[in-house]
Amino acid sequence: MEDLQILTSFFETDLGEASIDLGWSSCGRYLAVINADSEVTLFDAETNAELTRWTCHEDGALALAWHPRLSLFATSCQGGLVKFWRIEDDLSLSKISEISFNQDKGSTWIEFIEWRPNGKQLAVAVGNSVKLCTINSEIQAEFVFPGGTVGAIAWHSAGSLLGIAGYGGVSIYNASDAKSEPIVLKLKGSLLSLTWSPDNTFIVAGCQDNTVHLWRFRSRKDAEMSGFSYKPLQLTWANKGKKLITGGTNELVLWPFDKKGPEGRAPETRSFHSQAICALSVAANGQGIASGCRAGKVAIWKSSQETEPATSTSFEDRVEHLSWSSGKNSKILAATSRRGLLRIFDVSDAI
Question: Are 133 and 142 spatial neighbours (Cβ–Cβ below 8 Å)?
Fold first, then answer.
């Protein structure tokens, strides 16, 4: 491999602690990063400057999720609180509301929050259930997961179905009818990540036993993909859902998800990283790919067809998160490290 041009950032800041979660607003203008001290840093891509920084929870923060249409986002923490924040027209920030999920038993940690695609409800996983709530602190539905603590959640793209994964498989609920019986996809073992394919043909989960399991939604036919050195927590779709990219090994692994599906077919692999890939992100256009590893290397690939990265950069320690701006044609990438460094890159010249 020829020496790659090193990518340099146009914005950099010390978050103070490792990032816990991050994401871009639907318009692609704002980036919010939450760290282990529950401090949120808000970046404005229009001015390329940090807007504000504040502590959002007294307990340790666990998740952050932007609304799919509006300039507002939710945060959650270990103490069972979800808070909603809005960016006002004058660029000030206001807290809209908060909801407390106090459990009589079990954990109050809220690690998974995900907006329904229409933005009307936020799915909040706490203990062994997922609750659907509004920004006005109203809980409208609850779905109990039979396998115990929820390990992952994922919405069907139409917002009609909600997948909940954990020990024993996946339960898929009708989000508009909390009393209806779920579709159950059984699997021995514990699931740690979950995603629907963009066309909703497949449901894919990363498993505790270092495998990836998939189901065809209509037929319920299942299959398993193995060979991972670590838990494959990263599941990312590229090329309009025709490729699934997974973490859990030193190589970038691309599974074929065209009409034939991946069953019985070997994946493509891309070598670059010296240690396990622990962060993945695909650009909004479905082409550009960013991969980060435990050794601190970040690689930028023009598309899933490329066998070598177009450019790369390095942190001094593990890459924690990667996130492309949500703007359809944007080529802005945010990256964070274990020590709490945030860097933002413009990769237009590379891809």
Answer: no
The tokens describing 228, both together, are 């991972």
Return the DSSP state at 261.
-
Q: What does the alpha-carbon distance between residue 204 and residue 191 come to, in Å, rounded to a whole number?
A: 10
Q: Is the pLDDT of residue 249 over 80?
A: yes
Query: Do residues 273 and 314 make contact, with C-beta atoms less than 8 angstroms apart?
Result: no
The mean pLDDT of the chain is 94
- Give the CA dihedral 239, 241, 243, 248, nearest 10 degrees: 120
Encoding tokens for residue 210? Answer: 């270092």
Question: Residue 1 pLDDT > 60, yes or no?
Answer: no
- B/e letters for 254-270, b = 16+ CB within 10 Å, e = fewer, are bbbbeeebbeeeebbeb
Q: Could you tell me which of 199, 196, 198 has the C-alpha nearest to residue 185?
A: 196
How far lies 193's CA from each of 62, 185, 201, 331, in Å? 15, 15, 17, 27
Contact present, 270 and 301 (Cβ < 8 Å): yes
Q: By C-alpha distance, which of 346, 335, 234 is closest to 15?
A: 335
Q: Rounded to an integer, what distance in angstroms lies between the CA atom of residue 159 and that of residue 157?
A: 5
Q: Which amino acid is residue 246, in one-letter code?
A: T
Question: Taking the model in full, what pTM does it have?
Answer: 0.94
Residue 149's pLDDT is: 94
* CA pair distance 138, 134, nearest whole angstrom: 5
- Nearest by Cα to 336 from 70, 64, 54, 116: 64
232 contacts 212 by C-beta, under 8 angstroms:
yes
Q: CB–CB of 59/52 below 8 Å? A: no
